[in-house]
Amino acid sequence: MTTAGLVRQHLIDPEVCIRCNTCEETCPIDAITHNDDNYVVDPAICAACGDCLGPCPTGAIDSWRIVNTPHPIDAQFEWDMLPANDAEVDDLEEQEADTLDSEAGELLALAHQFAPKTPPPASASTPHLNVATRRNPIVATVVGNYRITAPGTDSDVHHIVLDLGGDAFPILEGQSVGVLPPHDPDDQRSPAIRLYSVCSPRDGERPGHNNLALTVKRVIDNGHGLPGLASNYLCDRERGDTVSLIGPFGDTFLMPMDPASNLIMICTGTGSAPFRAMTEYRRRHLPAGPGKLWLFFGARTRAELPYFGPLMKLERSLIEIELCLSREEGIPARHVQDGLRDRLAELKVLLDQESTYLYLCGVKGMEGSIRSVLTEGIDDWDLREAKLIEEGRLHVETY
Amino acid sequence: MELIDYDAQIPNNVALASDDRLKRALEQWHPGYLNWWNQMGPMGFNDSEVYLRTATGVDPKGWAQFQYVKMPEYRWGIFLAPGDPERKIGFGEHFGEPVWQEVPGEYRAMLRRLLVVQGDTEPASVEQQRHLGATAPSLYDLRNLFQVNVEEGRHLWAMVYLLQRYFGRDGREEAEALLTRRSGDDDRPRMLGAFNEETPDWLSFFMFTFFTDRDGKYQLEALAQSGFDPLARTTRFMLTEEAHHMFVGESGIGRVIEATATAMIAAHIDDPTDVERIRSLNVIDLPTLQRYLNFHFSVSLDLFGAEASSNAANAFAAGLKGRFNEHKIDDDHRLTNSTYPVLRLEETDIVNRNEPALSVLNARLRDDYANDCTNGVKRWNKILEKAGVDYRLSLPHVGFHRQVGEFQMAPIDPSGQVHKGVAFHDIVEGHLPSSDDRAFITSLMQPIYEPGSYASWIAPPKVAIDNKPGDFEFVRLHG
Ligand SMILES: Cc1cc2nc3c(=O)[nH]c(=O)nc-3n(C[C@H](O)[C@H](O)[C@H](O)COP(=O)(O)OP(=O)(O)OC[C@H]3O[C@@H](n4cnc5c(N)ncnc54)[C@H](O)[C@@H]3O)c2cc1C
Ligand code: SF4
Ligand code: SF4
């Protein structure tokens, strides 16, 4: 990383750092060193793994600059403060392309179309973004891959657990990761990515084990008679195989940390992934929080509903679940929008509370039908919607 | 007795759930602990939701989980930093031998004493800070106070874990006793002097976290070198939390200085000793700050004990407590023939004398500490320099206002000059906070509980916690 060209350099803010040595102690590859004045990151060594970010008590460590030529450590030793952020780079467009993966940005923009400018919930934790980049992806190891829809159904959804080894990859509930699918080496373009919502909470699928989990639906036909590239790749990975991840992505579809908040979650299929993460977070950390969890979950049949078994085991005191099955034998067909319509009166009461947050995630098609239920059923929906968006209380992610 | 799901309630990486003996011991201790917390912990905020960092594991993910928690529901946890099966003892007579996973019989009493002294300081600071919530200069500071409190509580757990796990009945009794002493209590005081001092106001609190918690950093780091591996790993993890406490102190004082400098500049006051005018701006004048600094630095130096100490020498020789950054020191790590320069008082002179290094380990640790403090003060002065205020803070000489060791009650002024024939009290007076200073500081201590608002005498933080903005509702007072 010492040659010229735009790089994202990891720095320590000397005005905030208290020289406590925690980062130097933490860095697995000794990229951090100090003299009597300053703690500094050696740009020739740092792999941007993020391990040092959490333990730093001050936030000084979480400083990044886009530079043409990295500041050498001798210069950093002399600093009283960080150099200005914009004095360094001549090409801002490229800067953005580098800090937020452009393709991921486009995918997310598309996924957030319905409520484009929603800010995150006020009490949400601050997400880390782009810890791993295409240039420096995290190589995770598959430690589990289970089908979570009944065998024999059309819907082949997998729960995939990835071990992150010694790398820090801080994720918040609602964020997604980019997967780099296998890439044809003759193809000169940078490999395409696919986004997947993380379905485990921030402390991992299994706390203390530095892992995360994804819910992946196998796309059998991509519309051109071919199997989906990334989803098949993931669903076919076996224990011990590796997967390259980048990200995390997403700074708005996040959960409020206020235990009094009510979360209304509406999803179909793999749209349940972020809600599994949020629900699991609340179950682990705030099981008796005053806030209410309410899930509307649509699928064709019970057997095709991801996580049906585990879902049914959740305590009623933690979460209320409204299953909407469209092809289950013996019961009338119901889609998520029907479920929502049935409970509209209760929904209105909840939406009147400032602590209520509404989330939609799943197939693109559901946006429209949910929207018509709300517009028809709630008089001033347009006004309310604008307010919800403004207050960071309405979040949509459909793909 | 209440049955507790220990893995859920007490995040740990010591396989608590499968250790029946330890579980029983902790089950007996836990109610007493909660009782102590309710009696002596932060007064009046047990129902508030505080945006706290909880450690749920020692891996990068489990390190810093931020969430709203009611303090009594904080998950205290027992964590040991990851172990290294190859680790060797790094100093003393057992240098190079594999570290111990159990307590070596001949060092049992010495080790227990080390743990009890360390353990005693943890609840003490919670007790000292009990009333501060009522006068917090902002919700952000209130949250930082509570974070310090719960982590001191967790550090007590860490020491109690070692006592109960490795010291049988004696250990359990010591663990109980840790809950019965009280900071400042005439009958059952805490073991070390500085932990019986009051922390009546936020300026004292910031000074305490900068100076006194930094003593903790040096003691813990020396223990983190221990040949008794569970102690080394426990203290290593505690150190990472201790760093946050020092942050609270360093940034707290830094923000006080910034508020003062900004107010002085705005009011066109050039003379930093124009105390009356500066105080009328409701900010803390720098000479008063200097007197607080003199006080807290000197009482913290006392925590290092006498310069020469056979206890310290024995603990080092036994491989129980090393030097600061022992593994980075380039020498034989046995200290059989080496010397170390120590300041001594000879008549009216303070002289530097080489003495057997093994016998003056406390002096060395204290020097490392003082050096660290000097650098912190340098950073505070940068704030003044940048603002263009003509005043510099400085550390008093290590001989100033000492109650322990070589300079005990010696008439030495902050510049290090010895005034033979003058009473100790006459020397220190004028250099320590006066009752007038304290009254002024107390008058500033009015709580500010509006998110984003800060008391006049302290600037908002440059970066709030967890990348949050300064107006984040760090503590939800209602409910
Ligand atoms: C923010 C975000 C989060 C996402 N989270 C998840 C998740 O948690 N789990 C998950 O499985 N997917 C998720 N996706 C979708 C995922 O990124 C991929 O689009 C999907 O796996 C298909 O990729 P592929 O490479 O297998 O198919 P490709 O080879 O890219 O073929 C894609 C084609 O298949 C069709 N297609 C795409 N997705 C689907 C689908 N889900 N069902 C049916 N047909 C489809 C489209 O017509 C498209 O032309 C998410 C997408 C976004 C934008
Ligand atoms: S990001 Fe990783 S490699 Fe870089 S300094 Fe931090 S811990 Fe070391
Ligand atoms: S951990 Fe943070 S505060 Fe401590 S030395 Fe490193 S950058 Fe500075």
Ions, cofactors, ligands: which are bound? flavin-adenine dinucleotide, iron/sulfur cluster
Number of strands of chain B: 5
How widely separated are the two ends of chain A? 36 Å
Shape of chain A: globular
Compressed to H and E, one letter per element, the order of chain B equals: HHEEHHHHHHHHEEHHHE
SSE pattern of chain A, N- to C-terminal: EHEEEHHHEEEEEHEEHEHEHHEHHE
Report strand order across the widest sheet of chain A. Answer: 8-7-10-5-6-9
On the 0 to 100 scale, the average pLDDT of chain B is: 92
The low-pLDDT segments of chain A are: 1-5, 87-99
Segments of chain B where pLDDT lies below 50 for 5+ residues? none
| Strand fraction of chain A | 15-25%
Structural class assignment of chain B? mainly alpha
Given the structure, what is the number of helices of chain A? 11
Q: Compute the gyration radius of chain B: what is it?
A: 23 Å
Gyration radius of chain A, in Å? 23 Å
Helix content of chain A: 10-25%
Describe the structure.
- The complex is a heterodimer of chains A (399) and B (479).
- With 399 residues, chain A is an alpha/beta fold.
- Chain A contains 11 helices and 15 strands.
- In chain A, helix 6 links the parallel strand 11 and strand 12.
- Chain A starts with 6 loop residues before the first strand and ends with a strand.
- The N terminus of chain A is likely disordered.
- With 479 residues, chain B is mainly alpha-helical.
- Chain B has a 3-stranded antiparallel β-sheet with strand order 2-1-5.
- In chain B, strand 3 and strand 4 form a beta hairpin.
- Chain B is globular and about 65 Å long.
- Chains A and B meet through helix 1 of A and strand 2, helix 7 and helix 11 of B.
- The structure holds flavin-adenine dinucleotide and iron/sulfur cluster (2 copies).
- One iron/sulfur cluster (SF4) binds next to helix 1 of chain A.
